[in-house]
Amino acid sequence: MLRRRIALGLEYDGSQFEGWQTQPHGRTVQDVLERAIAAFAEETVTTICAGRTDAGVHACGQVAHFDTLRNREEFSWVRGVNRFLPPQISLRWARYVDSEFHARYCARARHYDYWIWNESVRSPLAHARVGWVFRPLNVDAMQAAAERLLGTHDFSSFRSAQCQSASAIRTLVRCDVGRIDRQLVRIRVSANAFLHHMVRNVVGALVAVGTGRYSVEWISQVLEARDRKHAAATIEACGLYLTGVEYDAKYGVPEPDERLLFR
Fold first, then answer.
1. 167-174 own/partner pairs: CB under 8 Å, 24+ apart
2. 152 strand-pairing partners
3. Which domains are seen in the chain, by residue range?
4. Which residue(s) pair with 246 in the sheet?
5. In whole angstroms, how far apart are CA 84 and each of 80, 92, 151?
6. Catalytic residues
7. CB–CB of 245/111 below 8 Å?
8. Distance (Å, rounded) from C-alpha 91 to C-alpha 81?
9. 116 in helix, strand or coil?
10. Is the pTM of this model over 0.85?
11. Per-residue pLDDT tens over the stretch 50-108
12. Would you say 37 and 78 are in contact if contact means Cβ atoms under 8 Å apart?
């Protein structure tokens, strides 16, 4: 029987899991997803995702793929697998794709949002959903600093010590900072690919500028240093969302949905 490849669109609350990638204890998004697919398809599968999110990081636009012997309607995959998933994970869509499709290697761009609760007192209702910065943020200064990161650069200053990428060269095509309302600040970032902890490290640096700790010009110095020791601290994971992954139209994968998560 011929195996077919299926692409999936995923949404999940990362605060309940220890990241995407499978672990012996089984408390990861990948582990839970693969168990649900196996329960519905009655076969063991291995999933591959577009972006291996860390513990505490959320997604409303994650993409993954797997191969199966089962031949079922696309809507049946969504309803059937969701039946076996916990409330913190949901399939949003399923598409049969060509065997050359690869969720990670075929991705042309990845999009992330980082949400900051910017108020003197933390919000229990937003716990594990946003990062918290109690000092007032100057979003205009943050935007000016963000624009200095656009383009193709060596982002060594913004990668973690555990990053395994062979090259730190990445192309940042968007880095927008905006105050959505009195308490919420959103940082929207897009690139061809990201290094380990790159988005959280970029946001940490922008926050350092926004609070007045450093000047706008400082972020250029950090970028040019190509040394993590020159940058700011990594901001917490809970405010980060993988919002979408882009592919060539020939694969028929749905376009990213850039809805406002908190409105």
1. 168/195, 168/226, 170/194, 170/195, 170/198, 173/109, 174/111, 174/150
2. 171
3. 4-106 (3.30.70.580), 109-242 (3.30.70.660)
4. 109
5. 7, 14, 42
6. 54
7. yes
8. 7
9. strand
10. yes
11. 999 999 999 999 999 999 999 999 999 999 999 999 999 999 999 999 999 999 999 99
12. no
